[in-house]
Design goal:
The chain is mainly α. Among the domains are: 178 residues; 82 residues, no CATH class; 131 residues, Leucine-rich repeat, LRR (right-handed beta-alpha superhelix) (Alpha-Beta Horseshoe). The protein contains 30 helices and 8 strands. A 6-stranded parallel sheet has the order 3-4-5-6-7-8, with no helix packed on it. The chain is elongated and about 105 Å long. Interacts with FLNA. Its main location: cytoplasm.
Amino acid sequence: MLPSHLEAQPGKSLFGIERVPFIRPKGNRACGVPHCISKGLETRLGLPASHTTEEEQALKKIYKYKKVLSNPSRWEVVLKEIRTLVDMALTSPLQDDSINQAPLEIVSKLLSENTNLTTQEHENIIVAIAPLLENNHPPPDLCEFFCKHCRERPRSMVVIEVFTPVVQRILKHNMDFGKCPRLRLFTQEYILALNELNAGMEVVKKFIQSMHGPTGHCPHPRVLPNLVAVCLAAIYSCYEEFINSRDNSPSLKEIRNGCQQPCDRKPTLPLRLLHPSPDLVSQEATLSEARLKSVVVASSEIHVEVERTSTAKPALTASAGNDSEPNLIDCLMVSPACSTMSIELGPQADRTLGCYVEILKLLSDYDDWRPSLASLLQPIPFPKEALAHEKFTKELKYVIQRFAEDPRQEVHSCLLSVRAGKDGWFQLYSPGGVACDDDGELFASMVHILMGSCYKTKKFLLSLAENKLGPCMLLALRGNQTMVEILCLMLEYNIIDNNDTQLQIISTLESTDVGKRMYEQLCDRQRELKELQRKGGPTRLTLPSKSTDADLARLLSSGSFGNLENLSLAFTNVTSACAEHLIKLPSLKQLNLWSTQFGDAGLRLLSEHLTMLQVLNLCETPVTDAGLLALSSMKSLCSLNMNSTKLSADTYEDLKAKLPNLKEVDVRYTEAW
């Protein structure tokens, strides 16, 4: 019988480890013996000694080993006892996590209380407990010991042979690193240890490949988010000293308002913005007639040149009384007349940054991981010090390029901001953005892929005209075909109101062969459109069944359809791609798309241009709420058929509230029915 002071507490095992139900192994057992102990040992319950349970025996053994290991004298004896303790836990027939976890807790305490062990003794202990780590996460103190070993002996075989399966298990399981920060830190130090080997990043690359698996689809859904979490934390740690120095510098609001309020600041590392080069200043001066004099905010730690402009857009301007933070680019004070922060990392931080940015690049090379990676990085989860660091943004550019080259919309759409009013990768890597280090090549690539999908809209063109017209014209002047097309669309859709700007765009287009050719085609189309409107043409048109987008385009380009009011494409094979031709029918009032593959992308384009449409039939089309919500801008709609679509009840209520003229609606076989 154990002493009374060693009784297990309610819901706890002998050493305070939480208990879980276990399955008793098969075999003859006397009736009446409890299956688990929750309020005391069986001996305290008055049971005969012959009825001592296997659990009580295991608890007694664990207590004995804990007592022996609490006062170590000879380490060869301690090591032997640890091995025996591990063997006991492995051979125990009890299916109880505490039986395996208790030895790890004992060893963890032993190591924390004895810091004068030799490296060889450390490795012997790690090898001894390795079998228990195959199915159990190491406790926090043991993680700290493992981290120290990775830092001090990164080339030890223990790192490869013992730590590898432990880290693989951590990455494959659901992990909340916020609650288990030392597990994340151990994973981070393990990867850095791999990077210290002779092969360096090749070893890390093979480790990433082993986590992904040999097939084209990773069978472990938690590996990617866990790896990204480790990468983000590691990159953040590289700039931690600079981040801590924010207390020393003016707040973002003070910088934005061009003033610094007095406050007590602690002396930490300096941060400063370098002065612009004379060439940039001279170029900017030619375009800044309406700008006021620059305001210089200075302190002993940070020097920031802030441009105050009287023509600032409302979205980028905030009053002095507004406590909201400015956009990311505003925070970084990036403008054509300002360069980025001068940040120099220490050798260790520099190696850490290089390793984990390289891992992000490796992750972006896997097709199945790229959509999730793009989604995880879309909110730009990096500190602004990292985004102001030229080395970091230059290395990360490879990842953004991979997103820009991916034809899948769920990938390249993540280049845009996660919500309105917030900057995205598109803004950061565009000319004038903090991360742009080229002549706009990546910017042109991003625009090309976005314009090729469902972003060929008036809204997107308006945003380019307002914020990136200068870079677009510069790239078009250099013969970039995508930018030439952008300028032509701006003219065609009447995006530019200012006559001088229109003339400048025309001059830009006519300065290159490709621009001249596209501008002539634009003029021909506009003349044809005016001719169609003058001559008229049929008012009703029905395409034959099985017609395609190409058939529709060929038909509309062959005659005069300026007066076409009723168009039926029912039961044809047209898709959203035909919307580019439909929006050029100025008189269209009735459109029948019954049982076609016309989707959300086409619907958004129609809603921006065919504002006079009165009757729309979308029965049995693949449209969803994402596209149907765009119809709220078509105030002239009086009849709308959404039969057998993916319409939700909330979207239906929203449409009814925003379309005052809607009188006939068919929502049968939808959620709103």
